[in-house]
Design a protein that fits this description.
The protein is an alpha+beta fold. It is built from 4 helices and 4 strands; from the N terminus they run E-E-H-H-E-E-H-H. A hairpin with a 2-residue loop joins strand 3 and strand 4.
């Protein structure tokens, strides 16, 4: 698989990491720092969790643990509900 992008660091800051495959075909980073290995692991956890639902679902993940998950008729509502599930962690 081709190199998609180098990552900011591996599981720990002193480790190197890279992402291979068709990542950019499915995901777009909108803002923030360059991605790290831990970001990819959290993204994977969120994708697996939201795939369990049929409606629009948002999962807010921190260190592979969901701190807010919600399903609603629209993604905007699901996002708002997920943030409200844990305003401190999801904020």
């Amino acid at each position: 698989a081709p190199l998609a992008q180098p990552l900011r660091y591996g599981e720990n800051p002193h480790q190197k990491a890279a992402l291979y495959g068709g990542f950019r075909e499915y995901f777009q980073q909108l803002h923030g720092k360059e991605l790290s290995y831990n970001n990819i692991i959290d993204l994977t956890a969120a994708a697996n969790l939201t795939a369990e639902f049929e409606d629009s679902t948002v999962a807010i993940i921190k260190h592979t643990n969901p701190c807010g998950v919600a399903t609603a008729p629209t993604l905007a509502d699901a996002y708002r509900f997920a943030r409200e599930a844990d305003a401190t962690a999801g904020g």
